Amino acid sequence: MASPARAPKGASSLRRFAIDYGLLILLVGLVVVFAVAQPAFLRVNNLFSILQAVAIVALLGVGVTVTMIAGGFDLSVGGLAAFVQMAAAYSLIVLDGSTGSTILLCLGLGILVGLGNALLIVRLGIPDLLATLGMLFLLAGLQLIPTGGRSIAPGMTLLDGSVADGAFTNAFLALGRHRFWDILPVPVLVLAVVAAALWFVMDLTRFGRVFHAVGGNELAARLAGAPTRAYRVCAYVISSTVASLGGILMAARIGRGDVSAGNGLMLDAIAAALIGYAVLGANRPNILGTVVGAVFVGVLLNGLTMLNAPYYLQDFVKGAVLIGALTVTYGLAPKRA
Amino acid sequence: MASPARAPKGASSLRRFAIDYGLLILLVGLVVVFAVAQPAFLRVNNLFSILQAVAIVALLGVGVTVTMIAGGFDLSVGGLAAFVQMAAAYSLIVLDGSTGSTILLCLGLGILVGLGNALLIVRLGIPDLLATLGMLFLLAGLQLIPTGGRSIAPGMTLLDGSVADGAFTNAFLALGRHRFWDILPVPVLVLAVVAAALWFVMDLTRFGRVFHAVGGNELAARLAGAPTRAYRVCAYVISSTVASLGGILMAARIGRGDVSAGNGLMLDAIAAALIGYAVLGANRPNILGTVVGAVFVGVLLNGLTMLNAPYYLQDFVKGAVLIGALTVTYGLAPKRA
Amino acid sequence: MPVVLAVEGLTKRFGSTRALTDASFELHAGEVLALMGANGAGKSTLVKILCGVHGADAGSMTIGGTTVAFASPRQAREHGIIAVHQTIADVGVPTLSVADNLLLDRSCTGRGPLLAGGRRSLRAAGAIAAGIGLELDLSRRLDALSIAERQLVAIARAVAHDPAVLILDEPTASLSAPESERLFAVLDRLRDRGVALLYISHKTGDLRRIADRIVVLRDGRVSGEFRRPLDLDAAIRAMVGHAVGQVARRDPVPDGAPILRLSQARLAPTAAAFDLVVHAGEVVAVTGPVGAGKSTLAGAIFGLWPLAAGHMDLDGRPWRPRSAGEAIRNGVFMAGEDRWRTTFFPGTVPFAQIAGTIGFPFLDRWGRAGLVARTAETRATRRLIAEFGIKARGPEDLPASLSGGNQQKVVLARWHAEPARLLLLDEPFQGVDIGARDDIIRAIRAQSRDRATIVFVNDLEEALEVGDRVVVMADHAVVGDAADLARISALLASPHPAVS
Amino acid sequence: AGLAGAPPPFDRGDVTVALVRYLSVGDFYQAYEAGARAQAKALGIDLRIFPGKQDAAQEREQVEQAIALGAKAIVIDHGLPESLKDVARKALDAGIKVVAFDVNLDHPRIPQVEQSDRALAQKALDQVVQENGTSFQAAYIYVAGFAPLDRRDAVWTAFKAAHPGVIEKARFGTVSDATASVVADQAKAALRANPDITVVFAPYDEFARGAKLAVNELNLADKVKIYSADVSTADIGEITEPGSPWVASVATNPAVVGAVSIRAAALALAGQDLGPRITVEPILLTQGALREAGVKTIADLNARIPAFGHSEAATAPWIPQPR
Ligand SMILES: Nc1ncnc2c1ncn2[C@@H]1O[C@H](COP(=O)(O)OP(=O)(O)OP(=O)(O)O)[C@@H](O)[C@H]1O
Ligand SMILES: Nc1ncnc2c1ncn2[C@@H]1O[C@H](COP(=O)(O)OP(=O)(O)OP(=O)(O)O)[C@@H](O)[C@H]1O
Ligand SMILES: [Mg+2]
Ligand SMILES: [Mg+2]
């Protein structure tokens, strides 16, 4: 625009309301519709089961959101979660590792991958999409090598002909399966804690402001004295660590190393992060929005299943509602000339 | 642009050479290694089958490249190709359509989807990643609805119980299978023509300049008199039309309507477009680079299969070579202050 | 007065360019030292070395007697050296609020409250804004502000550091007289407190008002130093190498046919209606404070948005352009303000070079069958480079490698590549040195005979220099026009017309 | 609306059964679902289908959701035992009947419906030996990690050990959303590099279609034979096409397997003991036999080969046949 952005021409307050709360209202509307059509939908157990179902996608989405806040992008989270899931199974079953050492190993791998991404992007200057896509392929291949492409199950025969004699420990399995007070699944708790912590840091502390500043204008942040490279590295490490947490939870839920796990994770996580843009009219990456985005999709899919909609309608409805929600949010927003 | 980038500071000419030609040299190196290890690799027939194997991915990548040149992005191409592939089978088998009408229908659908993307992005202002992701889901669902999620083959029973009595015409099948002079497969020819045409337009004509200008600084392009919105719409329509061409070729090759989501196609197409950044030191989306990127991956996979490398190594090698190539290209490039 | 900062033999090379050669000077507490120099003389480079963005190739800096070398802006800041940089895009985060931007330095250096956005930080941000008398809604996003407002935010940030040395690189480039005066008042106060100020500007008015001492840079070397009483003409000679005389003002062509006519035009539904006529051969300067609606008027004439009411004629025919493209086809050209936003393409665009930039709007006139006419483009560019005295190696140079004044000449040259009927220039002197401004005014004048020219500028001095006639705007309406300083000043000072 | 003469709870109707799936996309799974739906309809069952996206964690959740929904019985269709055993037990504890299809949940109260992948692979390899002897060079298409493929792989491994004359010259494969065309590209490379290959063992019809594409594109149809498992209408077309190198497939009718799964759940609900295993035997379909019988579609196959279109497994007099 030739001149500074025209001041928003008095968006009516109703419209403003629709932009800010459109997605939330839609979410509430969906819940009401599903609850009326199928009372079982609203049972506490089912609601927590929805949260449990979206927990991993939401975790990954939250990680991606951190990199987006710092002006980057991370396509590798889905691949990393799947990779860590295999690594956890390998550690428990083949190496006969303990719960604690397995968790440490997995988080260590996450941090390593995060540093790897950071090296490629921050140090070598490879564009983020490209570097993390390469990492995605690398991880997808790497996870297959130790077992020759097979899933890792207790008692499996290894490439050298020996038999693996470890097993998933109960403590590890509980990470994915235990429910506090028979209601609150561990992964949901983990999601809640991680999302709340990152939300707090990103939205309320000065560190968060610096992440936003690095994403909004790295040069300005550097001139203001911020160690911007360190922040960018940190963003990728956070994203990878959170993703490896997701991988641990996934392994605990599945109970073995599944080579086909985590297929659609990346797209769903990115969708959640992108839908999050539209929550509360933020129009920028934000942690809470991402969680809401993931829950939104989870509610939709669960509700459709409850209504016995055929599976092939699900993708369609997902796309249609996504586009619909976005149209409301963005279509109504005042346009800049 | 935020701050004017300074001109690269005299990189040594050897380094410059490595940056410009690094990927091409690597490609030649690969070819030599494979040819030595397995003489069948270099036979003309095999080379054309590599091209045939990458033709569809390359086509989609070329489409994505056009949107990237215009400053956008199109995640929906893979989904669209899969969708069009189903539509072609539906037209031929269920509607008993002719070859011509089927092709027209498919291209029409492509244009429609492109206009839809453009509506969402250009008109409603939804961010490109988000809008095309929504479109991807929508198409993935939509393609399943007419047949209730089943593949389309001659003689199939439809949802209403009747039996489909159409078939793939020989003329249509030839689009995917015929080889001119027993050598040159039709899809390769199509790719060559489309890529050459788009390269010509984008690199040599004033229309191409406007696309680049819109992508580089839309406001500057508009103030210089370019109808930037029309060009952005056009970019999405081109990308979708090319993707639907890809879908037609896919249907012709497979010979039925295959239920599939096109995720893998999308990633490969985007990888090709992104690798293309590094070809000839362009450091920007460019049509020729994308084709080279796709061929690069194709040569790698074909060669590995010929050497009977285990399939589970392929993703790993793909990722490793991708990252390696990028490291050479970007890691050696002079850093900007 | 004690020496706060002493610079000895600073040298800096960028590849084959010598940006700075053996520069030495001293800066005292409680003085305003003005740094003058033509575009590309090395002023910004010097600033960047002083505040730790670049390292010097040779030379030394001493602060209070000890030698220092900064590896980062942070270290410079710890020694009390703060700079407000020239490129406005470098100074703020567009996606954050004004308050967050005001507190950016504190957040980035790990001082200030851990919790951001709370009442405490809002109060702190408010205090920073009050420090220079800035009145703004602190919750607005920075990208919703005008350039001038952003510039003020950046200055407020710098002042908030309570610096020992404050460096301002062309702070008034996009400010109008009242805002500039407000800034000077702040600087006066800082000077009285003993702060050492290094002030860079191309505006002689500024220097007259604020400078205590002048150091002139020429081609990277110190070429002169002037103390009070300041001899600005001598300083300019030291800077440009020759005297810069006033461009002779021509009398307006008396019988020039009216080209543009606005009747009962309103730029906003609530703004006053006004008339405006511009004749062939005439250069009209439109001036007024920041936000007066100058760019809005230019955009309306150029077809970027419609008038809120009223109507326009071009050459006696109704003029209702719906796009820039339509305007350009009809010979109405506009060079927008802020050249990096409105004119230049980033280096990733394959034709970002001077030739490609100049040729871009005229591709359809110069080429046949959709092909790019590279030879026509290069030929025209060579001619324009010579005509406008652009210092470049050739048409294939990137604008990014030129100095600011030469960049601005490229913008001007582009819109002289084809004959215009009506030429609109929005802030054509932004960041341009005195010599180059002189060149640009000559160039505008040289070809203005057969067209109407309107120049939109904040700066009254510039308006008087470039315009045959000065039109004053306020509150999105024209309040009157005049040719002499007294009447213009009266117009600028008079209460704005009631909203009708 | 109840079912006249049926034992409770079917006499009163309104029985909710959940079908929780590991995979939904693909012809086999769609035909299975159609068979299950038809049988459920005939029984007056309200069948709730939880679609699968090859996501084991999701499948667990869906079993829990099925419990929350108040299903009387749950049919678990494929999946990973490790991720399903505990939730299946949870369902049993809640008094819900559980039937498993092609996934070994290893619980005495969970009957298993099987299409017997072992028999499937064995019959195909028997046919290979009959047509090619025990000494030939082969290409094998395989991707690990998919339970049916892994079970078929075990048979292939044993087969190679038993026949040292069988040399596996190339092994490749991929499962993606473009399986057939990617496999075709791989097969072309492998066949070019190893021109002596005469047998392609492709124990999944998508693999076979890719291999066939490759053989045809290389003009090797008179030299290379493809043996596979599974069948669909489209597959029949490709097998019987003139000059097709795809000479045999071994398959069960997925619709029949789907119906058997539902019938097993119904019998369990009616209190009948089913034993640990309910097996649906696969049928060998050779190119010659299909051509001779003029079979063009699955419907034709059902009509011509009764053993293909119908199974006696898990039947009872009160259970009406679907459709
Ligand atoms: N990062 C850089 N890389 C290469 N050359 C540079 C760089 N920064 C500055 N230069 C060159 O150094 C010289 C001095 O530039 P500088 O920006 O210091 O000039 P200036 O006096 O501030 O001019 P202006 O009045 O236009 O702001 C110019 O020739 C410029 O092109
Ligand atoms: N149609 C409009 N309605 C309301 N406010 C407007 C309108 N057009 C512009 N403004 C406001 O006017 C201010 C700037 O207007 P404009 O850019 O035309 O001024 P200017 O005189 O060119 O100022 P500058 O010196 O900043 O370039 C902005 O704050 C903008 O929000
Ligand atoms: Mg400067
Ligand atoms: Mg303006």
Automatic annotation (TrEMBL), chains A, B:
CDD domains: TM_PBP1_transp_AraH_like. Its main location: membrane. It is a multi-pass membrane protein. It is found in: Cell membrane. The chain crosses the membrane at residues 21-41, 47-70, 77-95, 101-122, 129-146, 183-202, 233-255, 261-280, 287-304, 316-333. GO terms for molecular function: transmembrane transporter activity. One of its GO terms (cellular component) is plasma membrane. It comes from the Bacteria. Keywords: Cell inner membrane, Cell membrane, Membrane, Transmembrane, Transmembrane helix, Transport. This is Monosaccharide ABC transporter membrane protein, CUT2 family.
Automatic annotation (TrEMBL), chain C:
One of its GO terms (molecular function) is ATP hydrolysis activity. The keyword Repeat applies. It comes from the Bacteria. Keywords: ATP-binding, Nucleotide-binding, Repeat, Sugar transport, Transport. Residues 5-244, 248-500 form the ABC transporter domain. The keyword ATP-binding applies. InterPro entries: AAA+_ATPase, ABC_carbohydrate_import_ATPase, ABC_transporter-like_ATP-bd, P-loop_NTPase. This is Monosaccharide ABC transporter ATP-binding protein, CUT2 family.
